[in-house]
Design brief:
Belongs to the universal ribosomal protein uL24 family. GO terms for molecular function: rRNA binding; structural constituent of ribosome. Keywords: Ribonucleoprotein, Ribosomal protein, RNA-binding, rRNA-binding. The protein is mainly β. The protein has a domain at 9-75: SH3 type barrels (Roll). The chain contains no helices and 10 strands. The strands form 3 sheets. Strands 6-3-2-1-7-8 form a 6-stranded antiparallel sheet, with no helix packed on it. It has a two-stranded antiparallel sheet with strand order 4-5. A hairpin with an 8-residue loop joins strand 1 and strand 2.
């Protein structure tokens, strides 16, 4: 089970985007994440007339390491550490360490 999954609301804890929040759009297999509107880069892209792609300078998200983000806890309003717990019905779920609230409903 992964600590951070697609669709999670995360907060950046270190780097140039420290303090920013965003939603995880994609989890890469090398331990990196694509987070919406975080770690934006400018990419010089060549146009392709066959596909109709416009050339120029586009702005897009670059990958950020999963160790640089924490899951956002709406109860505390801050990033929080994650633990794992097995419920009575046998499901393994993530929970916030600060208030023991279950993340996966």
């Amino acid at each position: 089970m992964q600590r951070i999954r697609k669709g999670d609301d995360v907060m950046v804890v270190t780097g140039k985007d420290k303090g920013r929040r965003g939603t995880v759009m994609h989890v890469l297999p090398n331990g990196k994440l694509l987070v919406q509107n975080v770690n934006m880069i400018k990419k010089h892209q060549r146009g392709n007339p066959q596909t109709g792609a416009q050339g120029g300078i586009i702005e897009r998200e670059a990958a950020i390491d999963a160790s640089n983000v924490m899951l956002f806890n709406p109860a505390t309003g801050k990033g929080d550490r994650i633990g794992y717990r097995t419920l009575d019905d046998g499901r393994k779920v993530r929970f916030f360490k600060s208030n023991n609230e279950v993340v996966d409903a």
